[in-house]
Every structure is written in C-alpha cells, then in structure tokens.
Design goal:
Radius of gyration: 19 Å
Number of strands: 12
CATH superfamily of the largest domain: SMI1/KNR4-like
CATH topology of the largest domain: SMI1/KNR4-like
Largest sheet: 5 strands, antiparallel
Distance between the termini: 36 Å
CATH architecture of the largest domain: 3-Layer(aba) Sandwich
Structural class: alpha+beta
Shape: globular
Strand content: 25-35%
Length: 295
C-alpha cells in the first residue's frame, strides 16, 4: 500500500486541475493538541494513517455547510476535525439518551449492529445525514480502523469499504487517475472505485449517484431577537432526517450546525421543540426562504 502522503499528492493534482474550489478549500494540517483532545474521548486511538492524513489536510473547509461546489467526492463532504467531533458527539449523545436499536441488515459480521450508533465510530465523510466512518469498535470478523459506509435512515445496509483509511485513500487516488465523471447539473465529482467484499454491486444503485436526481425546495425558517444590546438571528431547515441550524449577530454573518436523527419524524419533532424554545425566549419569525436540494 502506498503512503498517505503519496495518495494525497495524486488527489491534490486532480483537484487543482479539475475542481479548484475544492483544492483551495483543502484544510491546513490539524494541530496535535486538537487530535489528542479528541482521542481522549474515544475508546481507542485514531489509526496512524488517518492521523497522517489530518496532518496533511484537515478536511475541506466549509464543505459540511451545504456548498455543492465543495463536495469532495460522489456528493460526500470531507469533514475537518471540528466537524468530525461535532457529528461524533451529537450522534453519541443521541444514542446514549435514546438507546436506538441497530441495523439488522448490516452485511456480514465485520460491523457491530446492536446499536444505531457506537462511540467507536468516527465519521469523516458526510452526505445528507449518512456517514462514512472509521471503525474503532468492529465486529468479530472486522478490523480496527476499517472504513464503513452507514445510512442514518437505514435505506441501505452498513458495509465495509476498505480495511483501513490508508487503503481507502489509495483507492480514491487511483480512481481519480483513471478518470472521473463531472456531473453536468451540479458540477460534482463522481468516480467508481472498488470496495471490499461487502460492496454494493448486487444492490440497487443509490439515488445520489443518478444524474437525474430530483430537485426539491426546502424551507428555511428564520427568527430574530432584538432587545437591549442584542440583535441576533436563528434559522433552521429540515432535509429528511437532518436539521441545519444557523445563528449569529444580525448583519455580521454566523455559523451553521448540522444535526442528524434516525428518522424524518424525529427530526421534525426536534425542530418544533427548538422553535418553541426560541419563541419562548422572545424570538420572532421574520421570513421563510427556500434552498434547492437533491433527493
């Protein structure tokens, strides 16, 4: 297996030539202090190849905020460490609080399926609530550090993509060298590359890989609070089983946060709970806008 740095050189060359927004948004090396702080919360150390990758590029800046042009590959967003921690903590806390059951359709015995989410799963790719994670707590026939694709809604069974992050990165680099398809509608980069024995070759293709994906208007509900020295906004939108929240000072920008739930119903119920809390604090709904998403 080639080195992580060699794989990244190939990937950098491709994006510099074919997708400059992604190339310019590749993150700077992550700090050792941030890595150690996150590792203390995990049941095992992060794999060396994944740490090496973060020390080269800490994800893609801004990709997890919904920008199509910053999607890394096949509609997946490559998360920086801050977003990884945020997603990991949210899913872990939600699992601890609600005790959701697992995915009985998981392929093979390489992945534990007794719970919807496990503390030893470290997500590094994200797409509409679905995740690809590094497995620090594998099943009896799995390997620590294996790369697993996971569906938040259970629309497809969890499956192993590669035995390690380094192997997955090498597969991606090789696929980019062979050639890619650039989607005419969204400009996204789409490639085909092999997975381990648990690949989805016998299953129906996922909707996100289709060139004829349906567009959908998703409402954004925006609220503002003005009083005393405060002038703040808060907004929220639901896309399937995922909520996107934004907040900040008026006219000064803000930040976004993504929360994932097991079902769209659970997401809707939580959204209404958050809205009721904001209204109780004196926020006033000021507008409803729309964004375009893909089914």
């Amino acid at each position: 297996m080639q080195t992580v740095s060699k794989s990244w050189r190939t990937i950098e060359h491709f994006y510099k030539s074919h997708a400059k927004p992604v190339y310019r948004a590749l993150g700077k090396p992550v700090s050792d202090s941030k890595l150690k702080n996150f590792e203390r919360k995990l049941p095992a150390k992060l794999p060396r190849d994944f740490v090496q990758s973060l020390r080269i590029h800490n994800g893609v800046r801004g990709s997890y905020l919904g920008s199509v042009e910053l999607q890394f590959i096949n509609c997946w967003e490559l998360l920086p460490l801050d977003a990884i921690q945020q997603e990991w903590k949210m899913m872990t806390d939600l699992q601890d609080e609600c005790g959701f059951k697992g995915d009985n359709d998981s392929v093979g015995k390489r992945i534990k399926n007794d719970a919807h989410w496990r503390r030893g799963w470290v997500p590094f790719l994200h797409e509409n609530g679905n995740k690809v994670f590094i497995d620090l707590d594998p099943g009896p026939k799995g390997k620590i550090g294996q790369v697993v694709e996971w569906s938040n809604s259970g629309s497809f069974p969890s499956q192993v993509w590669a035995d390690s992050f380094g192997e997955w990165l090498e597969q991606l680099a090789a696929a980019l060298e062979r050639g890619v398809k650039i989607d005419d509608e969204d400009g996204g980069i789409h490639v085909k590359f092999g997975f381990k024995s648990q690949g989805r070759s016998k299953a129906k293709p996922k909707a996100r890989a289709s060139k004829t994906r349906a567009r959908k208007r998703v409402p954004i509900r925006r609220f503002e609070f003005i009083g005393g020295k405060s002038a703040k906004f808060w907004q929220i939108r639901q896309t399937g089983s995922e909520l996107t929240l934004g907040s900040g000072r008026l006219h000064r920008g803000g930040k976004e946060q993504i929360q994932s739930f097991p079902t769209p119903k659970a997401a809707a119920e939580h959204m209404q709970k958050l809205i009721d809390q904001k209204l109780a604090k004196g926020y006033v709904e000021v507008s409803k806008a729309y964004v375009i998403t893909f089914n």
